[in-house]
Amino acid sequence: MKKLKGCLYSASESNTKLPDLGPDLIMSEILPRLPAKCVGRAKKVCKEWLSCISSKEFVMMHCRHMCKGSRQKILSIGQESCFISSTTVDLVDEKTMITLPFHVRPSDVWILSSLNGLLCVCLRNTFEMLIWNPLIRSYINISDSKSYGFFKIYSDAVGLYIDSSNDYRVLHIKRGRFTVDVMAYSRRTSHWKRIPFLQKRHYHTNGYVWSGGDFL
Fold first, then answer.
1. What's the DSSP call for residue 91?
2. Which residues pair with 71 in a beta bridge?
3. pTM, whole model, 2 decimals?
4. What's the CA gap between 154 and 59, in Å, rounded?
5. Alpha-carbon distance 148 to 55, whole Å?
6. pLDDT tens track for 12-28
7. Which of 180, 184, 169, 170 is CA-nearest to residue 210?
8. How far lies 174's CA from each of 72, 214, 216, in Å?
9. Neighbour count for residue 163 (Cβ, 10 Å)
């Protein structure tokens, strides 16, 4: 990394083009530090990049770099209170109590999925699903009168993702009696849309239990 910084510094001082960094430096120091979406795009550069980025070694490097951010927080939900703490070792004992913006006990909040600081949660008393940012105490109720956005434990699974247009979406797998419905909620349009998914009937039986881990 020092070599890379030196290259950037000398180039900016002399107003010349950057020297060839070499594939090893790019693969070991630059790509692992990029956001996941940029890494996905980098796979399309060439077969060599696709092979490297798809390897287990690169995945491990990328995860280690993504986990180093001092901005990452831990949300702890207890029976009667909620706390936010830092992942930094020096600050791990410093906790900030937060108040829920919705009128339920903390123990009645289920965390279904998380992405970039946003949480998809379910309220145990109504089964309504919400998108919640605990740092700014802002939330959106994504359930509606058409029975979309209601979570059923042991039958449903939920995941958050960002699509190609940078729209945050909630993927909700709902299993009924010998059927599987998959709905996608758009944060941009505030609407649900049914999408085709797993049409084979053996996935529709009670022999399969969905979980958030399915989306990994």
1. G
2. none
3. 0.62
4. 31
5. 38
6. 444 555 556 677 778 77
7. 180
8. 31, 13, 18
9. 11
